[in-house]
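**User:**
My hope is that you can spare some time for a protein that puzzles me. This is the protein in question:
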Amino acid sequence: MKPIRKILAPTDLSQFSETGVRYALNLAKDIGAEVTVYHVVNCDELIQYGEKMKDKIASDRAFRLPESFLEKDQLALRQYLKDHFADLIPSVNICEKVELGRTEESILEEAKKHTTDLIVISTHGRTALAHIVKGSVTEKLIRNAPCPVLLIGPESVETMADELSAA
């Protein structure tokens, strides 16, 4: 079994994804791995943003588009890490990455492109009906990932924290 050197921790910047990111950072700290905390800005969200901005652009000749459409999301990811993982940031080699795309396709491509050894992702625990209707990013990752995928439920980090404090 090859050692884990590169961990990919996808996040949607939600409370649900905190557990997966925290688990990935703690694991990386323990084994000396690098973590890429990866946020995908869904193309559909950008289209909605563009629709909202049409009126503003039309009414304000001085309006400037942001230098990077993803700048807001890059700042949001940086703040997310500071707000929730300040305790781990100094002790883990973290790469922050934000890209535009379709979530599961982008995560798979990122894992392949950078020869990721492990993907650590939170499960949201959706109902069976929502799972059938929307599908599951996690399920698609499990079926198509070029490396192992570790699923983290909300209780996993609490259990891990208890184990670490007892050690």
Observations:
- The two ends are 26 Å apart (CA to CA).
- The chain has one domain: 6-166.
- The first strand starts at residue 6 and ends at 10.
